Amino acid sequence: MSSSSGQPQFRYTQTPSKVLHLRNLPWECTEEELVELCKPFGKIVNTKCNVGANRNQAFVEFGCGMVAVLLVSVPFDDIESADLNQAISMVSYYASSSDPAQVRGKTVYIQYSNRQEITNNKSSGDVSGNVLLVTIEGVEAGDVSIDVIHLVFSAFGFVHKIATFEKAAGFQALIQYTDAETASNARNALDGRSIPRYLLPEHVASCHLRISFSAHTDLNIKFQSHRSRDYTNPYLPVNPSAIEGTLQPTLGPDGKKKEPESNVLLASIENMQYAVTVDVLHKVFSTFGTVQKIAIFEKNGGMQALIQYPDVTTAAVAKGALEGHCIYEGGYCT
Predict the structure, then answer these.
(1) Dihedral of the CA atoms 264, 269, 274, 276 (nearest 10)?
(2) Residue 265's closest CA among 233, 226, 215?
(3) CA 314, CA 100: separation in Å to the nearest integer?
């Protein structure tokens, strides 16, 4: 079978299907991004996102939907054929095009699926689970800290993990609870509501939460940072690069840039005349509260350390008391 342009209709040997298999997708690819990629070729009626060992694959199903079958007097076989032709047109286009299919700059590989329909899809946001997908509308990534998100959602139960990221839909977060019941309670109470005004920067007038269920059941958090937290693993390493230099500054009342607050402090130690060890730092910083983790490293010829507290308030108190002071008398190790 060939197209009118003379190009082979099928580059792949699989039997055509209205369900396409997409590979090499970016991390946490959303249903919205898949629909956006496919909509020039037809209507997507079902998706299955983040499958495979690396969660970088997906399935999409073309179709007219049952509404079309009910409202239009068209034989069912013709509907099935129309669904199939939409998938064929997408495969054919990218098989002959010099511009590859892309999502967020990554080349996506497309082929026919062995399945003829997607069943048991948990990506619709309607099937309950223990992980919520939260879109925070009206804000940018630096406007709402992960500590504020934790504060809001922990009101309904213990939050195991949080991962935040930016997508085409806006600033989003995945929030993992112990069970689906707790997640459902949080969703029912917060979906469509706003984060309390006093928890937001002054330049943010309001923001709204749009909440659905995620297909995830257990988030893979590799580092504690301003973008991700695992509240079940106190021994997880802190990622310095994720904390230093990447937080978007907010504006203070005077209009000047205001340093974002975090429960992790970055300490630069100057005038090093004596050794500063983890034990020394623990003794100094634990005066103000429980120190969960300390990481020491060298950068630009100087010594720096990351000190993690349980919350932002304790970290802020320690920062205010210790900044500019010396560990040893005589002005050493400032």
Answers:
(1) 20
(2) 226
(3) 50
Taking the C-alpha atoms of residue 35 and residue 15, their distance in angstroms, rounded to an integer, is: 23
102 DSSP β-pair partners:
107
Cite the beta strand spans of the chain per DSSP E: 19-23, 44-51, 57-62, 102-103, 106-107, 109-112, 131-137, 159-167, 170-177, 208-213, 228-230, 250-251, 257-258, 264-269, 293-299, 302-308
Contact (CB, 8 A) for 322 and 285? yes
pTM summary value: 0.41
**Strand pairing category for 106-107 and 109-112:** unpaired
Number of residues in the chain:
334
pLDDT tens per residue, range 6-43: 433 344 456 888 889 899 898 878 888 898 999 899 88
In the numeric block, which tokens belong to residue 216? 């995830």
